[in-house]
């Protein structure tokens, strides 16, 4: 037995940013396609963050670093930014080595302490 889809627009979670899935292996020549897809995602939605799923890029190398850096540049030029999903630890180390820092999905932001961490207060400390 089948039923017709409900009338009206589909329900969309407004808190979930769009996702760009990157497939590997990354090469230097295949940068324009993902950059155009990212630009289209940023222009289409009100979201200024696009999640880039880099789990399928394959072994990390300078071609992957080049692709991710160009995606970040494209996002910034369009007024947005990217967040990495499922990066290989070696890719994170390589990005850090060349001086590129990216927000990684599932990790707390640098300014926020991880959940469950509380700052100690000493008696006599001034109230802030």
Automatic annotation (TrEMBL):
Top-rank taxon: Bacteria
InterPro entries: MlaB-like_STAS (IPR058548), STAS_dom_sf (IPR036513)
Domain spans labelled MlaB-like STAS: 20-100
Region ranges (Disordered): 107-128
Listed Gene3D superfamilies: STAS domain
Pfam families for this protein: STAS_2 (PF13466)
Protein name (record): STAS domain-containing protein
Organism for this UniProt entry: Streptomyces fimbriatus
């Amino acid at each position: 037995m089948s039923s017709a889809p409900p009338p009206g627009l589909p329900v969309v979670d407004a808190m979930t940013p769009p996702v760009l899935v990157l497939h590997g292996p990354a090469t230097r020549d295949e940068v324009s396609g993902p950059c155009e897809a990212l630009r289209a995602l940023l222009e289409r939605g009100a979201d200024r963050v696009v999640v880039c799923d880099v789990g399928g890029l394959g072994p990390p190398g300078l071609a992957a670093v080049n692709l991710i850096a160009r995606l970040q540049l494209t996002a910034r030029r369009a007024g947005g930014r990217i967040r990495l999903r499922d990066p290989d630890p070696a890719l994170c180390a390589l990005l850090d080595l060349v001086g590129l820092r990216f927000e990684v999905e599932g990790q707390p932001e640098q300014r926020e302490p991880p959940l469950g961490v509380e700052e100690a207060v000493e008696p006599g400390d001034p109230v802030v």
